[in-house]
Specification:
20 strands; nine-stranded mixed β-sheet; mainly beta
């Protein structure tokens, strides 16, 4: 009944076979998981607000109190006919995050929803298939992504709409869509323009393997971009701003 600074939920996978992780499997055609208009989480981390003034409010999630919530060294696989499934939602603050996990959402909708910031992070994750790899539209401020592999999402690899900066190092994205592969949008609850924050991507690569026209790596939504040591293959444009201005790429190189 308090915040999770002390009473946090931490899932750490163990295995008797070296090199293997335990795996959570959503059975094919599971009840309630086949409607993309009403997505359903396989795993949902949430935290009560200990300062809530009434019982109804106390039973609502308040991610500002979600400290140290962890999901690590466990894989997730979505069975067939579950196209509304979201593998895991973790919107957390200090110490929260997902790490060392392979998430197969070939038959699902979203790999990771929420986003941990304010001292939280997501590290060493591979997400295969699905429509959206990481839906970070409501991430806590300044999330960090490290060594994230995203393979063949059909809508976009990453959506970011959180407060302040997104810092990503070691992204490895392979896609067959036209893009944008990384979609950046204004913060969902910005108090002012100061809450926009830049998106910083370092030591990463985006590779287009399909034959789609007008391929775009990044859509900026009027937020500043910092790119350093980025390899992009098969894109017409590295990034596009809402006013139509863009940074052209060498599609054949």
């Amino acid at each position: 009944i308090t915040g999770s600074r002390t009473f946090f939920c931490s899932w750490l996978g163990e295995s008797s076979t070296p090199g293997q992780r335990p795996k959570i499997i959503l059975s094919p055609n599971s009840n309630g998981f086949n409607d993309q208009n009403n997505p359903k989480y396989v795993l949902n981390f949430w935290t009560r607000d200990p300062e809530a003034s009434n019982l109804n409010a106390m039973n609502q999630d308040n991610a500002s109190w979600a400290f140290n919530q962890k999901f690590s060294n466990i894989d997730i696989e979505i069975g067939t006919s579950n196209n509304g499934a979201v593998a895991i939602r973790l919107q957390g603050a200090e110490g929260a995050g997902i790490s060392d996990s392979d998430i197969d959402i070939t038959n699902g909708y979203v790999g990771i929803s929420g986003g941990s910031g304010s001292g939280g992070s997501h590290i060493n994750i591979k997400i295969t298939g699905g429509k959206i790899g990481m839906d970070l539209r409501y991430a806590k401020p300044v999330p960090t992504l490290v060594c994230i592999t995203l393979i063949n999402q059909t809508e976009t690899a990453i959506i970011y709409g959180g407060l302040e900066s997104l810092n990503a190092v070691g992204l490895d994205i392979t896609t067959q869509i036209s893009g944008p592969v990384i979609k950046v949008q204004p913060p969902n609850w910005a108090v002012s323009l100061y809450n926009y924050g830049p998106v910083s991507i370092v030591d990463s690569k985006i590779i287009f393997t399909g034959n789609q026209p007008n391929t775009i790596a990044i859509g900026t939504a009027n937020r500043s971009m910092y790119l350093n040591n980025i390899y992009i293959q098969g894109a017409d444009k590295v990034l596009v701003n809402p006013d139509g201005s863009n940074f052209l790429a060498n599609k054949d190189g």
